[in-house]
Structures are given as C-alpha cells and as structure tokens.
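Ticket #4471: complex job returned nothing on first submit. Input attached below:
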Amino acid sequence: MSKGILYDATQCIGCKQCEQACATENGLPYDDLIADQQITSAHKYTAILIKDDKFMRKLCMNCDDPACASVCPVGAMKKTALGPVTYDKGRCMGCRYCMAACPFGVPKYEWEKAVPGVRKCIMCSKRVAQGKQTACAEICPTGATKFGDREQLLEEAKKRIHDNPGKYLPHIFGETEVGGTSVMLLSSVPFNLFGFRTDLTERALPMYTYQVLSRIPDFVPLFGTMLGGIYWITHRREDVAEAEAQENEQKGGER
Amino acid sequence: MTVPRIRFTFWKAIFLFIMAAGVYCTFLRFFRGLGASTNLSDQFPWGLWIGFDVMCGVMLAAGGFTLTAAVEIFNIKRFHSIVRPTILTAFLGYLLVCAALMYDLGLPWNIWHPLVMRNPHSVMFEVAWCVMLYTTVLALEFSPIVLEHFQLKRALKIVRSVMVVFVILGVLLSTLHQSSLGTLYLIMPNKLHPFWWSPLLPVFFFVSAIAVGLAMTIFESSMSSKYFGRELELPILRDLGRVLVVVLALYGILRFEDLYHRGVLNLVLVSSYQQRFFLLEIFLSVAAPLGLLLIPKVRESAQGLYLAAVLTLLGFVTNRLNVTITGVENAGAHYTPKWTEVVITAMFVALGFAIFGLVARYLPIFPEEKVHIPALSEPEARFAEVVVPVHAGD
Ligand code: SF4
Ligand code: SF4
Ligand code: SF4
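Support reply: We reran it on our side without changes. The output follows.
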C-alpha cells in the first residue's frame, strides 16, 4: 500500500527538528545559518516556513503521478510503488526538464558543482523500503508530521477537519492537487500565504503530454503512407516517361 | 572595388573577436560550471541556451524539411535549385543545436543516455531520438553534394536510389520533433502564461516551423545572391512569398481562435509585462509580414520579400523566447542572460554563418551555371555586386 506524510500545521511548534533530521539522514550540512533559510535548496530538502505565529512545511510532495518522473528522458526520476519519488544521478544527464516541469518548484540544482545533480526530498525511500518511517516524521515531537498509509492519513485528515469546525481550512492540500500527492498538508490559514499555488489543476500533469504522445504510434504509419502516397502520385509522369523510354529502347533493340 | 574587401575583413575581425570570446566562455562553462557561466537558477532552470540555441536553432533549420517535402514529395520542380542550400542550413543547424546542448546539459557526457535508458512517456526522450535520427538523415541528404564533388559516381547512384526513403523519413521526423518542442511545454499549464500555454502548442510550433522554413529560404537566397554573387531566383522567391502568406494567415487565425476559445482574449488589452512581449511577437510574426506581403508591389520585389522574411524570422524567434522565457517569468522569477551566455550563443550563430560560407564556396550547393564567385577576378566580382541591385529593383 502506498505510503504518505501528513503535515498538520496547527500542531507544528516550529522546532525545525525535521530539518535537522533530514540533513542528518541525507548527509547535508546543517547549522544555525541554514536553519534560518526559509527556502528549500540543493542543501536543504525541507524547510519550515514561518509567518507570524503560523507554520508551514515545504518538501517534495512526492506526487502520485509526478511531472518530474514523466518528463525525465532517461528515467532518473521514478515514482516507487511505496510512494517516494526517487532520483538516480547515474542516469541523469542534467537537462533540468524535471525542474521546469515540477508544479511546486521542488527539484533544485547544484549549479556551482563541476558534476552537478538534481537535489530534492526523496521521501526517505531507503527507510520506507525497510518499513521505517521517514526521518522527519520519526523525530517530530508533536506528531505534526505523521507518516503512514496515504489512504488512512487522508481519512484522518478529513476526520480532523470534520471534528474541529473552524480550526482548519476545509482543504487538504495534496488530496487532489495535480492528481493527488503522497505528502498532504493541513492548515488554518490559506496556503497561498506561504507561496503555495491554489489554482493548480486537479488533473495529473503527465496526462497533458500523454494525450499527444500516445497518438504518435498511430500517426507515424498514417503520415508516412500519406507522404509516400503523395510522392507516388506526383511522380506518376516520370514513371510513365521512364516506361516509355524503356519501351522505345526495347523496340530499338528488336530492330 | 576596395569597398567589398574592407567589409570582408571587417566581418572577419568581428568573427575572430566573437570566437575568441567564445573560447574564453567555453572555458568558464566547463571549468567553472553552470553557476559561474550563466544566470540560471532554481527558479529559472532553462534560459537563453534552451530558448535560442535549441528552440530557435531547430526552428530556423526547418527550411530543410519544408523544401525537400515540396520538391521531392510534392514534386514542385521549380524549387529544385534552392533545395541544397536549405539542406546545408538544416544540417549545420542541427549540428550546432547538438553542440549547444553540450553546453546546457549539466552532465553533457551522459548525452547518449536516452539511447539506452528509455522513458517513452517523456517528450524530451522523443525529441532526443528524433533530433538524432534526423541529423543522420540530413547527413545522408547532404551526402550527394560531397559525393558529386569527389566524383564518386557509384556511391552517388546508390544514395540516389534510396533517397526517397530518407526524404520521407526526414519529413516525418521533422514533423514529430518540430511539434514536440511545443509539446514540451504542455506539462506546465499553471506555469506558462496563458498567452502561450495552449493545448494547441504542438500545432503552433509545427505551423510556425513551416513559416520559418519558407522565410529562411527567402532570407538565405537573398543573402547568397549578395555574398556569393548568385543570380537571385526572384520568380521562385515570389512563389515562396505566396505560400508564406497562406501559412502566416492560417497561423494567425489559429492563434486568434485559440485565445478566443480559452477566453483570454481580454488579457490582450490589459497592460502587462507579458502583454507587451505578446504584442511585439504578434506584430513581428504575423501582422507586419502579412501586411507587407499582401501589398502586390512588395510581394513582387526582392527587397519586399527580404524584409517580410526577416520580420517573420524575428517574429518567431520572439515567439520561442516568449514561450521559454517571458511566459515562464509569469511564475515570479526573472531572468536576463549573463554575458557569457550571450557570447556562447553569438559564437554558434557566427559559426553557422562562417561554415555555411565555407561550404558554399567549396562544394557544389548551388547549380553550377549560375555561380559567379566574387573572388575569381575583379570584373567578375563587380558583375556579382551589380547583379543584386539590378534584380532587386525590378
Ligand atoms: S513535487 Fe515536483 S519534484 Fe516532487 S514528485 Fe511532484 S513533480 Fe516531482
Ligand atoms: S535533469 Fe536529470 S533527473 Fe531531471 S529530467 Fe533531466 S535527466 Fe531527468
Ligand atoms: S521525507 Fe526524508 S528526505 Fe523528505 S524531508 Fe523528510 S527526512 Fe527529508
């Protein structure tokens, strides 16, 4: 069953222990300066965003049908059955289409490196494969970041909204956005306050391209035949002329 | 007769200057990385090299497939004499696009990965294969020119006998990847500004590639008559001009209908950063050239055709840059290319012109009897210089 993460901003206390745990888990640097950066980057896969007394968490949404994986020409980005969207630098050629295509602006690039790679939260794919929680969920002292089966987390999120009228926005960010995501967010204040787009389509983004790409195998034989046919028709006169020339030649030979 | 010679050395100096700067920027790119040599960022992962070198590069090379289709498949014989230069441009164009891609890719040594690592759901994967195969096809379409030069008659005969297959393959592959460059952006419905994001993007890219193919052929013929002392095939260019009118009109109507049906036509009247670039694009790519070509006097004259062609080219270059840069700036981030990016791009453009000039000089890409090589002798050269205005005037 597909796993997921539910982040409930109303339970978050902004301790940033998830940031720290993520850095440790992924071998990233972490200090007070990095802790103050309220954006994700090549060396920071998750960030706690603070607006007055409200919090929000930014990390890869690990989409159910991810744009990044669909556009990657070499399959370096992959959606695993368990939920995480992983990245394999050994395959990557650095075209950065994943960055251009991601609707949340998640993948970051190691611009300064001689051998750069794409960097993003991979939902602790190794830990999840071993049946463990993600590092950020495991460390969270309040349960604001919770790991579990996506379906169950979704039910729980709906229940929380239902049981606490007025506490939450009636919107689970990630339930339907771009076809649904493994990571889901709950908040009491509008998501766009933290730079999240609220006008995202509910369609899985890869469908937009698939609509066109899936026609190509049908298109090729049709168009090829059409071109060949046009050639055949427009060159009829030359064929006739050639045949006549040959005939004349043969007649000449007979004589 | 000193004038053309001074001009020649002047261009040579500019060329050498661009190349020297280009070599330095190449060093910066490969030894200091993308961060030091570009203004690209996490918010703006694709810039000038994708927007111009790749997108416009492929588009400007569209004359190759447009003209081969017209001559070889539709059997329009009177265009025959201008096919070779367009094949040369296309072949050079694609080689330069591939070279430019090596600069833009973060891990260029992995450029061959799509050969063995497949993701058929990726448009980029399809484009990579098409571009690779089409460059090979272009090499084969170009080969008779080389074989002729070295008088390799047997090889020439073999190549000629299978040429139809390559021509059809070339048109097919071009249709696929010219449109697919538009499909690349279909996955960004929320990122790309509604002026440019449309489910019809692949169609727009394909139709505009044909328009650019025609405009590029007119441009090229005018240029080579100027610099290689070729006779200008004005009647042919007039025909091309007419086709261009139809294609531009179709494109314009299609764009209008698309904006109308998506309900964003009203945005055209609201002043904004994107609106200004959109209006500029529509003016250059459709309104101005169409307006010019609809005037019979302009359509019949060499200068008129040349001007309309140049406007069309500028217009669609603006279009590609709008899709790749202006339209994406919608998402908040801004991007202006770094000087190093501009130099590299200039280097590829300069290389394109220079190699075209060299090849045109040494290989039979123009029909023999019409060539007047300016370097031959002074009177010949003068003749070549005079031919242009005389023809241009009528
Ligand atoms: S949020 Fe972006 S990077 Fe993460 S899985 Fe979705 S498309 Fe990929
Ligand atoms: S940058 Fe790498 S991971 Fe991203 S789309 Fe390109 S090849 Fe795939
Ligand atoms: S899931 Fe893992 S990689 Fe992603 S933010 Fe949490 S700790 Fe970091």
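Residues 369-394 of chain B have pLDDT under 50 and may be disordered. Closing as resolved unless it happens again.
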